[in-house]
Design goal:
The complex is a heterodimer of chains A (202) and B (232). By secondary structure, chain A is an all-alpha fold. Chain A contains ten helices and no strands. Helix content of chain A is 70%, strand content 0%. With 232 residues, chain B is an alpha+beta fold. In chain B, 30% of the residues lie in helices and 23% in strands. Chain B contains six helices and nine strands. Chain B has a five-stranded antiparallel β-sheet. In chain B, strands 3-4-5-8 form a four-stranded antiparallel β-sheet, with no helix packed on it. Classes of the chains: A mainly alpha (202), B alpha+beta (232). Chains A and B meet through α1, α2, α3, α4 and α5 of A and α1, α2, α4 and α5 of B.
């Protein structure tokens, strides 16, 4: 694979037209498949993938001299198309599914609670923190992934495996991460917890 | 453990600002690479881990990139029945040149002095055919893969071979072999050979077989490689 990467990298620089054309067509096919994987759920996925891959292909050509490791040429090209696709989705607010977008908007309304510089969390307040989380209106899985990470210091790989066993469905670490972020956003809007954190700052 | 509680309280209190998101997105590739390599990625990249918990947008971006990395590792990228053709109008369409022409421009010679200057144009034309030249077996296959091969001819009294370093894939070994019609082993020893790249200079002399070897050359600098021979 490293030899193939180096050969492809050098062929992209060739002054021989057929060699260079074939090299960029090979890079294109790869970039398109990567882009399609990233935007698979968008309504115009094929067109969007084509646009991202085309822009990435031009950028690969312009920045070839910046590739420090020809043996990792494909990974370098993949980074370029990934950043373009993610930036597009972020700028057009298409990274979040609709239901997550609504909850994200909702939690931005309350005023953040100020944090004094010398604030500490004692053992007592830690217990209270997790008691509030245990009582918050979030799902059991949500509770498990928040408490699993912050109280029990468990990695997402372990939490994913545990949820997979509990539900008999494949749960990835990325699912755990999104679930946790979604529910921490909900916890920001949970008044008893907001009050508790406000009391702890005095 | 107390640090985690403080972090959770901090994350719940306030959502991160957009300015942080761009830096985190740039760090995600390294974060995911560490994760898939089985490292303690949340400990290695704590600012990324805590930001992802506090920013749902970035968490979704991470999920897409993570699942892309998984799919690629499993060779399960989408394989659509039809891939549209790219627009390649941006490619340089200067007139193609041949290897002899490029070599003529790359070679400079006086009575006792010869310089060979590689270039980005020349390198792709030097890739060896599938039956690769192998190094001597004493290096246990470290330099088994030949990247470039330039054979000597009537105007070029040396051959050049470049081998990938299997111990450090960003580096290579450059082997220069003096080939003169009127000199043979062991009378090929003692010719001074210098190698120059933008970040490296090295000097040695040929052995009895006329061979000079340079290790630790950065592969990315091959387009800027210069070989000098003196006192031939």
């Amino acid at each position: 694979m490293n030899e193939e990467n180096i050969a492809l990298y050098l062929a992209c620089q060739s002054q021989d037209i057929p060699t260079q054309t074939a090299a960029f067509q090979a890079v294109w096919a790869y970039l398109y498949r990567v882009a399609l994987k990233l935007v698979y759920d968008q309504p115009n996925a094929a067109d969007l993938a084509q646009d991202c891959a085309q822009r990435a292909l031009i950028r690969v050509h312009e920045r070839l001299a910046e590739c420090q490791e020809p043996a990792a040429f494909r990974a370098w090209a993949r980074q370029i198309v990934s950043h373009l696709a993610i930036d597009y989705l972020r700028q057009h607010k298409r990274l979040l599914p609709l239901e997550d977008e609504e909850s994200e908007t909702a939690v931005s309304l309350p005023t953040p609670i100020p944090t004094p510089e010398d604030q500490t969390i004692t053992t007592l307040t830690t217990h209270e923190l997790y008691t509030h989380i245990a009582l918050a209106p979030i799902s059991d899985r949500s509770r498990r992934v928040v408490i699993g990470r912050y109280r029990d210091d468990l990695p997402d790989e372990y939490l994913a495996q545990r949820e997979s066993q509990l539900t008999n469905q494949t749960v990835l670490p990325s699912h755990i991460q999104v679930t946790r972020a979604k529910n921490i956003a909900k916890l920001r809007n949970y008044e008893p917890l907001r009050q508790f954190l406000g009391v702890a700052t005095k | 453990m107390e640090d985690l509680h403080k972090q959770l309280a901090k994350i719940i209190r306030a959502a991160p600002d957009d300015a942080t998101c761009q830096n985190i997105l740039l760090a995600l590739d390294g974060y995911i690479a560490a994760q898939l390599a089985g490292q303690n990625y949340q400990l290695r990249f704590p600012e990324v881990a805590f930001h992802l918990d506090g920013c749902l947008t970035c968490a979704h971006a991470y999920a897409r990139l993570y699942e892309l990395a998984l799919a690629e590792a499993a060779q399960q990228l989408p394989a659509p029945a039809h891939i549209p053709a790219p627009n390649l109008d941006f490619l340089n369409r200067e007139t193609a040149v041949s290897l002899p022409q490029l070599l003529q421009n790359a070679l400079h010679r006086t009575a006792n002095y010869l310089t060979l200057q590689l270039s980005a144009q020349l390198l792709p034309l030097l890739q060896p055919p599938p039956a690769l030249a192998l190094r001597a077996p004493t290096d246990e296959g470290r330099y088994a893969h030949c990247l470039l091969l330039l054979e000597a001819n009537e105007t070029l009294p040396l051959s050049l071979a470049v081998y990938q370093d299997a111990h450090n894939l960003t580096n290579c070994l450059v082997e220069v072999t003096l080939e003169l019609p009127d000199r043979h082993w062991p009378d090929l020893a003692g010719t001074a050979v210098s190698l120059h790249t933008p970040t490296h200079q090295a000097h040695t002399t040929t052995d009895a077989w006329g061979i000079a070897v340079f290790e630790g050359i950065k592969t990315a600098e091959l387009p800027h490689l210069t070989i000098e021979l003196t006192e031939m």
